[in-house]
Amino acid sequence: MPELRWGLTLPFAGVPLSAHEPLVRRAEAAGYDDLWSGESNGPDGFTPLVLAAAWTERMRLGTGIVNPFTRGPGVLAQQAASLQDASVGRFCLGLGSSSDVIVERWNGVPFVKPLTKVRETIEALRPVFAGGRGLGGFKLETPPAVPVPIYVAALGDRMLELAGELADGAILNFLPLSALPHVTERIRAGEATGGRAAGSSDVVCRFFNVPGAPEEALATARFVFAAYATVPVYERFFRGLGWGDAIDPMVEAWRGGDRKGALALVPEELLRDVFILGTPDEQRERLRAFVDGGVTTAVLTPLVGPEQLPELIDALALPR
After folding, report:
1. In sequence order, which residues have a C-beta less than 8 Å from that of residue 134 and are 6 or more positions away?
2. What's the distance, CA 73 to chain centroid?
């Protein structure tokens, strides 16, 4: 069983990349183990980690996530090997299919057979990271001294099983606590298929942390949830978990252009199942339930203004 790790999401919302250094150094000093980047319509998934590699000494750095549709395996191998070199072996490549919005609508790349695309990319990257040849005979000029671990972002059952079968870990996002037993069961099924020891996968989960008064915190959570859950891949995810009837009114209002009405229709029960609310102590207690259920790396995403970040980074650090 992997040891528990405590991480943060980069970049911090509302903070220019040029102003991240004191926050990143603060996080390492506070005892955080990991930094995982995101990639949607803000900074790319690699640049914040390149900067963090220069500002930290021991923290693990992971993309959470980049996708194999908008970057081919050769480019992914180059970027991953470069960051593994720059960080002296502290990098993890988090891969995921992303979404039809990001891949197809924003980048003009057909979003087809995502499961196959992720599988084929992993199979192409493994030999390249080991110094061999990949797709089309591609070979790195200098392979990484330490092979790059590959993690798979997964929502649906088949992608969860693929993570357990082929990857070093699974990356979860927007996970209701009530769904955790099902999710870990599918990862274990993949481990069995791949002939791997049960429980050997690092289970990384990103959490959205909203402190403050309950009504204010729920208002923030409603907005974030509505923006995510109306993206087709996340809508399918929540429907697959049995929340279809609960989210139907919200989805209908959002797609009809009634954003304000959609926010009012977000099911509060689901918000409380997904988001991490309350005081820092209450949030750590809630996170402990996820850890007890099988999460081995908790990646926190504080949803606060930049002026509140230093204090919250310290407050949410795991007591050692």
Report:
1. 73, 74, 77, 124, 125, 127, 128
2. 20
Closest CA to 36 of 64, 59, 15, 13: 64
Note the pLDDT tens digit of each residue in 186-244: 999 999 999 999 999 999 999 999 998 888 999 999 999 999 999 999 999 999 999 99
H/E element holding 244?
Answer: helix 244-255
**Predicted confidence (pLDDT) per residue in 90-112, tens digit:** 999 999 999 999 999 999 999 99
Residue the block writes with tokens 């196959």: 116
Residue 92 shares a structural domain with residue 170? yes
Host domain of residue 254: 214-274
268 and 284 both lie in a single domain: no
Give the chain's domain count. 2
> Do 221 and 104 fall within a single domain?
no
Contact between 49 and 83 under an 8 Å Cβ cutoff? The reply is: yes
